[in-house]
């Protein structure tokens, strides 16, 4: 991470405070104007998932500086509050932003942000979980429907093989934040594979919950409630993302239960660590730096008044107001295999530059055989 980002940007993101001169009081920065520097804002939704602060933001600045060193990147974090994000967008526009790269704090209430940006003629680039029901210049995402299909295909294989016990296999499903574009499309991808197994009686869904803000503590509560409701009568848990699976695992550990947990994706350290300990069975890897580089290219094209780069933006997605030009990126499924070192799967995350072995081999994974041999 460059010194120019360093502690200053991370402080901005974590404390929701302004940086530089002209404190706007709402987590943004007021510097320059319409004729000022080439200014682009990277707008994170929250501190969960951690990736937007720890990885995507720094990678975005690195990529955009490599393409055009004259561009200034500012970072804000909405703290999970859509109203805060709207205020930050308004302040960014007033500060002379030439483009906004936005991961929506709450897509359900994000239309106002897009309306304000459209009125100010500031292009908005959606990122991973984009705002909806308004004008977007383009968006860059890992295809959520495909991610859901990848998770469900592997899970269905475990059901069909008998690894999860006799049928019907009793499962608890935990989804992402209700109404999020990513939740809706991921669920559609999962259901393509899972619903036929439910209809055939191979799977019985004994609990299902939308996890507010994708937050691990909310997943823990939902898991505890499910275990109470079913008197621990669950064969497996099927989640949506590493924060959710971490919450599930925390609840299981709190009750001294060892049940298989599936549905990792958007990898966090906990997900990969729990794969090494055998608590989590799978993960869908996303090369965050690739997404950040794609967004940097799209943002620069927007700032120049050009069309989105055709070699990257090849699809469209209906966001309720328009067909949004979309760059869909490829994701990679990894999973544990009987008799094999779990490090063989996790190595793929290291190869993609998502995390290093030194980062992974702490906390619950520190004492694993994999870390003893690979973290050297």
UniProtKB/TrEMBL annotation:
UniProt keyword terms in alphabetical order: Signal
InterPro entries registered for this protein in UniProt: Bact_Solute-Bind_Prot2, Peripla_BP_I, SBP_2_dom
Q: Which PANTHER family does this UniProt record tie to the protein?
A: D-XYLOSE-BINDING PERIPLASMIC PROTEIN
This one is known as Substrate-binding domain-containing protein
PROSITE patterns on file: PROKAR_LIPOPROTEIN (PS51257)
| SUPFAM superfamilies hit by this protein | Periplasmic binding protein-like I
| Superkingdom field | Bacteria
- Which compartments is it annotated to reside in? Cell envelope
Q: Which Pfam families match?
A: Peripla_BP_4
Q: Which residues form the signal peptide?
A: 1-22
Q: Where is the Periplasmic binding protein domain?
A: 41-307
């Amino acid at each position: 991470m460059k010194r120019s980002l360093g502690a200053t940007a991370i402080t901005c993101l974590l404390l929701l405070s302004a940086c530089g001169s002209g404190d706007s009081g709402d987590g943004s920065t007021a510097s320059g104007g319409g004729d000022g520097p080439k200014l682009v804002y990277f707008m994170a939704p929250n501190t969960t998932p951690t990736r937007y602060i720890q990885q995507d933001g720094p990678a975005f600045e690195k990529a955009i500086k490599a393409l055009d060193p004259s561009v200034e990147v500012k970072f804000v974090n909405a703290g999970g509050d859509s109203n805060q994000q709207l205020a930050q967008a308004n302040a960014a526009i007033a500060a002379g932003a030439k483009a906004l790269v936005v991961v929506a704090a709450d897509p359900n209430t994000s239309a106002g942000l897009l309306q304000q940006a459209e009125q100010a003629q500031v292009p908005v680039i959606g990122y991973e979980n984009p705002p909806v029901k308004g004008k977007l210049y383009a968006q860059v995402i890992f295809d959520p429907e495909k991610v859901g299909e990848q998770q469900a295909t592997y899970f269905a294989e475990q059901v069909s093989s008998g690894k999860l016990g006799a049928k019907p296999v009793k499962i608890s499903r935990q989804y992402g934040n209700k109404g999020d574009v990513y939740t809706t499309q991921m669920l559609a991808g999962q259901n393509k594979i899972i619903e036929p197994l439910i209809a055939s009686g191979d799977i019985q869904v004994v609990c299902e919950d939308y996890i507010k803000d994708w937050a691990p503590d909310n997943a823990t509560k939902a898991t505890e409630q499910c275990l109470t409701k079913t008197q621990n009568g669950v064969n497996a848990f099927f989640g949506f993302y590493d924060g959710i699976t971490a919450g599930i695992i925390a609840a299981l550990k709190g009750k001294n239960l060892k049940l298989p947990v599936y549905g990792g994706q958007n990898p966090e350290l906990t997900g990969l660590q729990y794969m090494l300990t055998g608590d989590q069975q799978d993960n869908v890897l996303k090369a965050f730096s690739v997404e950040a580089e794609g967004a940097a290219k799209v943002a620069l094209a927007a700032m120049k008044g050009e069309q989105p780069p055709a070699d990257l933006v090849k699809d469209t997605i209906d966001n309720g107001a328009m067909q949004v030009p979309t760059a869909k990126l490829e994701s990679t499924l990894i999973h544990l295999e009987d008799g094999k070192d779990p490090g063989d799967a996790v190595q793929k995350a290291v190869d993609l530059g998502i995390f290093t072995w030194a980062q992974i081999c702490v906390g619950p994974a520190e004492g694993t055989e994999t870390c003893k041999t690979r973290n050297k």
